[in-house]
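Workshop exercise sheet. Pairs work together: one partner reads the sequence aloud, the other fills in the structure field after running the prediction. Swap roles for the next sheet.
Pair: D.N. / O.F.
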Amino acid sequence: MDSSAEASSMAQGLRIVRLVVDREKSGRPLLGVSQLAAALSMDQSRVSRLAQELCHLGLLERPERGPFRAGPEYFTLAASLNTGWVLAARTELESLVSSLGLRARLSVRDGHRAILLRNSSNDAVPGSFVKPGMVSPVWCTGAGRALLWDLDRPALEGLLEGVNFIGIGGPGAAHTIDAVWELMVRDRQAGVVAAVEEFEHDVVELAVPVRDGSGAVRASLSLLGGPGLAEHRDAVHALAASASRLSGTAAPR
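Structure field:
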């Protein structure tokens, strides 16, 4: 294949990856070959071949011949490009595991969704849905609500306007904007988000924001454990200390 053809194939492959990732991030239905071809105005047979090659490379995956989603090598590649605070987060996450024996996560926000960027080595088992790129609601997770820390009431209303709260989250989840705001006010006073069974039964999540050099919330750092974690003062202090160290290395957007 000549260089121009290789460049064309690479560009088309990147278009496919970008569309698949954007669909997954936005929470919209994922796409198969024919839908990708239609959305990209490309020949279906070419999309099929390129998507197969992308799956072989691990950049995409297609469980049970269903729609495409980002594959493990996509996240490995993204992680290899991370320097500074994202790279430093790995050490902080494992330090929290070592000192507390709890699961730890680093998340960022995309609209009203929280995206898992890194998680600790004890946070998932083979076959688990917990992996980098996992998307969860911002309003009923500790990590998500820490990402909302600086929002005032009008900004929160604008973000969550039109969100369907019904059937989302665990028994402690908020189901209205008013309820989310009340939780935010409570947690700001305490200095830490304490999400008690807001996303999963019997799971408590403590979370704090990670700020960049300009003071803006860049990410959130969270710990997950069982009942009683909300009163675990050592965990709160350790979490805040880790977030502070990461905030010192996070560059402004």
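Discussion prompt: The chain has a mean pLDDT of 88. What would you look at next?
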